[in-house]
Amino acid sequence: MSIERKGDKLIISIPENTDPEGLQRLIDYIEYNQITIKSKANQEDVDDLSKEVNVEWWKKNKDRLLGK
Predict the structure, then answer these.
(1) For residue 11, what are the domain limits?
(2) At a CB cut-off of 8 Å and minimum separation 6, what does 62 contact?
(3) Are residues 26 and 48 in the same domain?
(4) Is pTM beyond 0.70 here?
(5) pLDDT confidence of 36, banded at 50, 70, 90?
(6) For residues 14 and 4, what is the distance between their CA atoms, to the nearest angstrom?
């Protein structure tokens, strides 16, 4: 494996036989990191939002999942 800088980009070379699922998880993590790097949200904010989304999701899907 190697990392090379070309202008404003980093070029990462990896072996062809690299696990594509593991590589996708790594790419997803790097993308997440780039998206959230300037976020001012703290863990409590994230937890509150997650709880709110889950409550709303359950309201919309409860009948379908419970067969009512």
Answers:
(1) 1-37
(2) 68
(3) no
(4) no
(5) confident
(6) 12
